[in-house]
Write a structure and sequence with these properties.
heterodimer; A: 3 helices; B: mainly alpha; 11 helices; elongated; CLS_N (chain A); transmembrane (chain A); transmembrane helix (chain A); membrane (chain A)
């Protein structure tokens, strides 16, 4: 199947996903503990598309205060 | 006023540290950009999905720019409000549980400036996120689908922004009322959803309800005016936001020491 994928249009979405995933992974490497095992969050962020990163930011992080 | 500035800066810092200034605007931008793209390529997507019987042709008219923008607002109503509530739910309750608020309130600080700083930072986060997302949606819609009337688009955005502010105030009120984050998210989301559902079912009796605002902004886009009840809904929403704010101030004061 040869459908032309308009990469120039989808590029912004990929960039957004990359930013979220990279920042999520950086913050994950810096924190001492998360809710649930760390390796699991790595898998979720890498495989879970944008939703995975958002999930990590919402429930994964333990807010240090 | 000095206290307010201090608290406001603290809130901003806190939102930055918890990455909320990063992911909330980005998710809104993504939601906004996605709808025009998906709409534009719907025929191709359906073709590629492939389980269409042979010979069947779908006549699909490309929707107008205003329609796509209105659909984007619909996306915000479903997922945007969820993101918003999730990012704001622990704003007051989190500090109460971690003991930060006990520390703050052991000094003579005013509850009003404390809550007002929270409220203002909530408003700025929502405004920036929604502004970014809507701008993205608008740009993509104009580029890919068709022109949108500028005045209508701005007006619709403002009505919608007010609805998001309302949802944010609601979340803040519940955050001051109770502690469990899941409970706050559930109740605030439920209330927002119920309000817009109630308007959908009883548009005549709920014409002035805040839940009418999403529909009003869609109407502004599609028909050029929000219809009767716009002014009423506007005033009632602002009134409720003030009530929620006063309630949040009162509850922070009352529950400052209790867990």
């Amino acid at each position: 199947m040869n459908t032309d994928i308009p990469w120039d249009l989808i590029a912004p979405l990929i960039v957004i996903w990359l930013i979220l995933a990279v920042v999520g992974l950086i913050s994950l490497s810096r924190t001492e503990s998360t809710r649930g095992p760390k390796w699991l969050w790595v898998v979720i962020i890498v495989c879970g598309n944008i939703l995975g990163s958002v999930l990590y930011f919402v429930v994964g992080r333990k807010d240090v205060s | 006023m000095k206290q307010f500035g201090l608290f406001f800066r603290k809130e901003m810092l806190e939102m930055g540290r918890s990455y909320r200034w990063l992911w909330v605007p980005l998710v809104f931008l993504m939601l906004g950009v996605m709808q025009p793209i998906v709409t534009r390529f719907m025929p191709e997507i359906l073709k590629a999905a492939g389980n269409m019987p042979k010979g069947m042709t779908i006549m699909m008219e490309m929707p107008s720019g205003a329609e796509v923008l209105a659909q984007t607002l619909g996306q915000y109503n479903a997922i945007g409000i969820l993101i918003l509530v999730l990012s704001l739910m622990t704003m007051i309750s989190g500090e109460r549980q971690s003991g930060v608020s006990q520390m703050i309130f052991s000094k003579p600080v005013s509850f009003v400036s404390y809550a007002a700083a929270k409220w203002m930072s909530m408003i700025s986060l929502i405004t920036a996120s929604f502004g970014l997302g809507y701008a993205g949606a608008w740009y993509y819609t104009v580029q890919m689908i068709g022109p949108v009337d500028t005045a209508a688009a701005v007006k619709a955005a403002l009505f919608y922004l007010l609805w998001m502010w309302f949802a944010g105030s609601l979340t803040l009120l519940f955050s001051s009322l109770m502690n469990p984050a899941a409970g706050i998210a559930f109740v605030s989301l439920g209330a927002a959803l119920l309000l817009s559902l109630a308007y959908g079912m009883l548009p005549r009796y709920m014409a002035w309800s805040p839940g009418a605002l999403p529909q009003i902004s869609a109407k502004v886009l599609l028909q050029g005016s929000g219809g009767t009840g716009t002014m009423g809904a506007l005033l009632i929403t602002i009134l409720f936001m003030i009530i929620f704010f006063v309630g949040a101030v009162y509850m922070t004061q009352r529950k400052r020491a209790r867990f």
